[in-house]
Amino acid sequence: MCSANPRNILPEPPAELKSVSKELTAIIRNKIARNGPVAFSEYMEMSLYEPGLGYYSAGLRKFAEGGDFVTAPQLGNVFARCLAKQIEQIADEIGQYEICEVGAGTGILAADLLQSLQQKHPPTRYRILERSAHLRQVQKETLQQAVPQWMDRISWLDEPPKDGWDGIFLANEVIDALTVDRFCIEDDGIKQLLVAADHSEFRWQKGPCPKRMQDKIHTLLAGLEQQPDAGFCSEINIDLPAWLHAVTAGMQKGIALFIDYGYTRHNYYLPERRDGTLICHYQQRAHDNPFIWPGLVDISSSVDFTALAEAADSCGLEVNGYTTQAMFLLANGLDAVLADFETLSERQRLKMNNQVRLLTLPGEMGERFQVMALGRGFNNDFCESLRGFSMSDLRHKL
Ligand SMILES: C[S@@+](CC[C@H](N)C(=O)[O-])C[C@H]1O[C@@H](n2cnc3c(N)ncnc32)[C@H](O)[C@@H]1O
Predict the structure, then answer these.
(1) Which of 81, 147, 195, 232 has its CA 20 to 30 A from that of 330?
(2) How many angstroms separate the CA atoms of 130 and 132, rounded?
(3) Which tens digits make up the pLDDT trace of 318-355?
(4) Ligand 1 centroid distance, CA of 86 (Å)
């Protein structure tokens, strides 16, 4: 979350960061010089995860104040305290349970959750699946400082857990960071948007769309009420089902909760959203040009929640709930979290007010961010009673 910047005017990075970006740019350019234009997913992969140079791999400050964007857990502990209520309900049904969090950022959500869950029903294990070696280190430091008593239950995974486990899988703002491909609808068919390089900069170039991607786009277009016209460009994550399968395959009895910004497919591919949903963040400014300062800028895209629900189906997971972040937090006792409001100091009240406003207002994270629960191994009555979706369930819109 950060302010819009339609003219893509960004602060100048310091010299040492520019040189990191230039090094990464040279690697990408060499690849293009050798093999020709690359798929956007490949460019995004290198921009975000090139060892030592990519946005998530280099040791830059990304989240919260002084970083590029703010996520819900960074605002304070209200988000985690409400999420803990949902976890408690699932944990009571399972008994001994564990949590597996993917893409844990600074580790603050894990720390706040463990603090909330410790009184009543703590997990037997908290495992973190994190791609970035740098962020793993940050997470260790955060957790060591916040919950030293729980360190023996926390571990990090190099790959998704394969052994069978029961519990809760969490992904807050992770699917938006998965690589996507870009496409454009032309009069003579669907084209893939590739990344080419000129003398000084990267640029888009249209090319033939690979068959697998083309088939997936045709399928999604066939399900739309309104067909986009020629010139419409957007994104698609054709590997989402494979990723979802990999990260949840070991979950025998559990609920996977995905919280992210996105839309149902119908809204994602609305004709007026004709430039897609790609968004870049640098120093609290949002823009739409992924070619500015590769490696220094976060690149993400909105989540197609209908695609997530379809991927769930192909993985043997049931969609047990879908709602907005605001309704999810309200249904998980946001009012109870605010019950001690009167006892807070003036300064704390202001901070709390701001936090709740950002988390719940429709123009902030309240509606743009949505929550989907994917379950496996429960009886139907329990699945249909998840408290986070008791105030509003939007599954019929998927
Ligand atoms: C936008 S950040 C969100 C961080 C955190 N969940 C939060 O809400 O503050 C995305 C996180 O996902 C991680 N990530 C992205 N793709 C991943 C993958 N395939 N496996 C594991 N972690 C991944 C990134 O390294 C980063 O920690």
Answers:
(1) 147
(2) 6
(3) 999 999 999 999 999 999 888 877 888 889 889 889 99
(4) 21
Task: Name which of 6-20, 41-55, 108-122, 132-146 the model is least confident about.
Answer: 6-20
Model confidence pLDDT, tens digit, residues 37-54: 999 999 999 999 999 899
- Whole-model pTM: value is 0.95
Ligand 1 pocket check: which of 131, 143, 244, 371 to mutate, most ligand atoms within 8 Å of Cβ? 131
